[in-house]
């Protein structure tokens, strides 16, 4: 199972749609309010808040991979909770911090890439 944080945002929602149509791993979408979120059929919408890592253990049950959009909350706490839950892989959506000048910690991540 893949858990996508930021699942209702621009990047996360597109990723959830793509992963759900690929027919690979089951997809779980993390949202603060599952009743208000609209996800494709078959996507497991779960309640969780990245600013409160203690709200995540239930969402992480059975999760093998986590897609983490940074800056939505307590990134270190989310990673520690994922580690404790046995998550094997984490994909960090780093492009949001590399190319958005107003993003927290915005700075070049690769040689020659400058924030706009």
UniProtKB/TrEMBL annotation:
UniProt cross-references to InterPro entries, sorted A to Z: NAD(P)-bd_dom (IPR016040), NAD(P)-bd_dom_sf (IPR036291)
Segments forming domain NAD(P)-binding: 6-103
Any Pfam family hit: NAD_binding_10
SUPFAM superfamilies in the record: NAD(P)-binding Rossmann-fold domains
Protein name: NAD(P)-binding domain-containing protein
Lineage: Bacteria, Bacillati, Actinomycetota, Actinomycetes, Kitasatosporales
